[in-house]
Amino acid sequence: MLSWLGNGIAKVDEYVRFRDLALRRTCGGVLSRFGIQRHTLGVVVYPAFLCALAIAGSATTGFRAYAAILTFLVAAAALLAVTTYSEKRNWPLSADLVLQLVILAIPCAVVWLAGSDRFQSNGLYRHLYIPVIALFGAALLFASMLAWAIFRALRSGENNLRTCLTRTELFASSGGVRQVTLWGALRAFVTVPIRAPLHLLLPAALCALVAPPDYLTFVAVSALLISFLALFLSGLNDRFNTMWKLLQSGFFRGGALFVSVLAIALAAARLAGVSYVKTVLDTAAGQTIALTVAAAYVLSWWYDYWVNRLLAQQLLNVIHPDAGNQPSIPYAIDPECVKTSVPAEGRVVQIHGPSHFIALRAPQQGGSNPVTYFQSYDMSALVRAIALSGAPGGKAKPSPDLVYDRVVDYHRLVAAFLALLVIAAGLSIHGGVQSPQIVAGAPGGGRVQLPRLLFDEHRIASGRPIIVMAASGGGTRAALYTAAVMEALARRGAAGDILLGSGVSGGGAALAYFAGRRTDLLQQDASKRQAAWDSFFSHMSAPFIQDVLERSSEWRMVTHGRLGMLLSESFEDRWELPPDRRTLGAVNDFGLILNTSIAGHFDKPDVPADQQNQSFLDAERRYRKRATTSELAGARLIVTNLNLARGFIGDPLETNTRHKLPIVVDDGSIRLERAAALNANFPPVFANAAVDVDNRSRFWVTDGGAVDNRGMEMLLYAIRQAIEAAPEGRALPRMHVVVADASGYSDSFSQDRGVGPAFAAGTRFASLLARELVESIKARYTLRGQREDFAFWYLTMPDEIRASTSFGTHWMLQPRVIVQRQKGSTEQRTLSGAAAIDIIRSLYAPGARQLDADAKTVLQWLRQRPSQWTELEKSLGKTQ
After folding, report:
1. Three-state DSSP state, 692
2. Helices (H), 655-812
3. What long-range pairs does 860-863 form, CB within 8 A, spacing at least 24?
4. Where are the alpha helices (DSSP H) in 60-196?
5. φ, ψ at 794 (rounded to 5°)
């Protein structure tokens, strides 16, 4: 049995070796039928793919997809033609590179000159890949000049390697079939994960990245088993081990190594069910990530091909100065010095792939020996073998150590040059203009007077309550939960009583949408009203993050934009708000507060006095480092349509700032979608967004949940201020403050060395502050003899569905939602995303949606959680 295994491995080794010979051979290889004898297939495929990438920009199925395919075919044909022409003219290898760069430049120039600044579904747009291709192309031009210069002295100086080659036998005997023993097989099996962990994991990882969700586990496990088997067999045969690793070497060199590690990490996260990764890769957005990974690999392989191919040609010229531009040199041996069983005639040494050499003796026409002999060497190993065998005792000129040093210097200098280009480009971009997400005028532009909303005499006289909502963060989950609470209120005829809302992230987005669509959601026609609510949930569950990922390569995003702008544009495109209710100033029947967290700020008055005449953007750019500080970090910046009285803004305890807190942005021209995206600018996915106020200050902000994720405190401050300002003897309105909390939930403990308390402390302090504010408002009602007219309701999304392992927050509806009955329970249900929405909508509105058996079971679990909804429902009266 073991003998059969050993023979089988040897046969597999032979098969793999000959396939490698056919695919990676230069002279006499795949491209020889086109008259190309000095390149492998990569010289056509890699740049043709990059030409197609320049046209496509991102994964697409529309016009750009067809244009990219056509570009690939045309580019491949052009590359074949110019490479053939160059070789016929015996032009140097660098000419092939220059011609290739010219062909690459054509689609890049077309996109750059004719493309839009913004992503186009069926058109060209400027994107990141084009400048990256240009940077790598510049580095390759440098490499072509450096390769010639750095080996010039070795070619023209004292050199006896050509003579040494005739005294060296490069065809090493493979010996007999290695005997496989039981102990050897056991050792090879056990050591697979140790010998080559990345080689083991990468095939499974790449399969896991592109596998359909239903076949994910099967595909990944199958690929892992195949990879494990191959590595197990390689542990039993040294030659097969070398060949197997050689076949995958392109994935573990230079930049490709980084891409491979990233691919393994993403695949592991998907297989582990990490929500943020799995949800994206399970949907069409995964195509964008897959294309990005493929583009990174091809770009790395293209760069690696030319850097090594240029180097290999120079080394061949060092070994045989008459090689010129040819990839192959004759390998005649001195029969007096070399005793061998391999026929002496017809031997050559030629470049194999971009970075190896092979000693080759092919069957000769009319010869009696039909066997093909070949042996592969990497660059340094070939020079060392020739030097040690042909001129032992260190007599080889140049010495192998000197050649090795030049090879290392070449690679380091080219890599350093590329790094300098990237750093210079990065510094240029970083030091350039950074566009704001919101530009606002001076505070004081809010149109909605909060006292007018609260102290409506007809409402107070009729005893009809005012409902005030605080909606938590939590992306798609929070947006849907907030919408569900509002729909449940609407079913009880109370949606028209929702007059004020304050939110964070997903909850804030839902409130902004409600503000824009309030007229439709409150219309009298029942069927149209229901259609409007259905549309609410449809819009909140749209794949916004897919839009962001698809468009993230836009060049404007790389240079002066922020990803939060793409989220804003996705909201604008998908919400389709009525033209007359798209801005803060257009909404005068609903008060809205959207909460963000300040990360830093820049004040133009801090710029030197003699520079104050500069435009605000120029001043910020030039004095960004000097005048931008983080002294307000953790404070609130709110975007609102309320005209808050000056007393709402207070002086901080610290005396070293000119700003009163919170920062209020109330410009009526700000679009609702843009304000919603700003309050949902969640880190670390989205960088801090810029808000420019009155051409005087720039505030860098992040998601409001970074301070507190429930959006309560600013709302309660505003209410308290309005109540305190009410004249004595004036009746206060009946008021229900409803908090819809869908924040992420996890009660797991681990020894995190204090990280947990650091992140949770803000919520606990905010809870104490909110309680104090609620009690102070209650006290005002008590003093007016209206204690029963104020109520505070805290509606928490059931833990089972807001747990971090269940319903995610990633601005797109998950294809599947896994709900566990309770912590530690093995009972769980897997729901579709649509079924999860129906459950959320049915939480406070029994019978509102048709549920299947699993959904009904989950709904029963959720309703076992205590909730204040029943009491709130009673206080509101009967269902409409």
Report:
1. strand
2. 672-679, 713-724, 755-783, 799-802
3. 861/798, 861/800, 861/819, 861/821, 861/822, 862/798, 862/800, 862/801
4. 63-88, 93-114, 129-150, 152-156, 161-166, 182-190, 192-195
5. -115, 105
pLDDT(657) > 80: no
Q: Is there a contact between 661 and 652 (Cβ–Cβ < 8 Å)?
A: yes
Task: For 283-326, list the strands marked E by DSSP.
Answer: none
Split at pLDDT 50, 70, 90, the class of 815 is: confident
CB atoms within 10 A of CB 629: 14
Q: How many CB atoms lie within 10 A of CB 826?
A: 6
Among 410-424, 688-702, 742-756, 849-863, the range scoring the smallest mean pLDDT is 742-756
Collapsing DSSP states into helix, strand and coil, what is residue 492? coil
15 vs 21: CA distance, rounded Å? 10
Contact assessment for residue 513 and residue 539, using Cβ atoms and an 8 Å cutoff: yes
| Cβ count within 10 A of residue 492 | 17
Q: For position 414, what pLDDT does the model report?
A: 96
Cα separation of 500 and 709, whole Å?
18
Helix (H, G, I), strand (E, B) or coil at 253: coil
The C-alpha atoms of residue 723 and residue 783 are separated, in whole angstroms, by 12
**DSSP string across 142-162:** HHHHHHHHHTHHHHHSS--HH
pLDDT value of residue 706: 83
Enter the DSSP assignment of 196: -
Instruction: Quick: pLDDT tens for 319-357.
Output: 998 888 899 999 988 877 777 778 888 889 999 988 889
- φ/ψ bin of 818: left (φ > 0), alpha (ψ from -120 to 50), beta (otherwise): beta
The answer to whether residue 215 scores a pLDDT higher than 90 is no
CA separation, residue 736 to residues 101, 470, 537, 720, 840 (Å): 68, 11, 24, 14, 22
Burial class (CB in 10 A: 0-12, 13-18, 19+), 602: buried
- Strands of 328-330's sheet in order across: 328-330, 347-352, 356-361, 373-378
Task: Report whether 169 contacts 344 (CB < 8 A).
Answer: no
Q: How confident is the model at residue 306 (pLDDT cuts 50, 70, 90)?
A: very high
AA letter at 471? A
Residue located via tokens 């005068």? 588
Supply φ then ψ for residue 348, to 5 degrees. Answer: -140, 155
Token pair for 566: 């793409």
Tell me if the bond preceding 465 is cis, omega within 30° of 0. no
The DSSP line for 71-83 is HHHHHHHHHHHHH
User: Whose CA is closest to 734, among 648, 647, 792, 818?
Assistant: 792
**CA quadruple 199, 203, 205, 211: dihedral, nearest 10:** 180
> Residue 216 has which token pair?
């994910």
Point out which residues pair with 758 in neighbouring strands: none
For residue 270 the two structure tokens come to: 């998907």
At position 267, the amino acid (one-letter code) is: A
Tokens, residue 792: 């505070």
| Res. 755: pLDDT tops 70 | no
∠103-105-107 over CA atoms, to 5°? 85
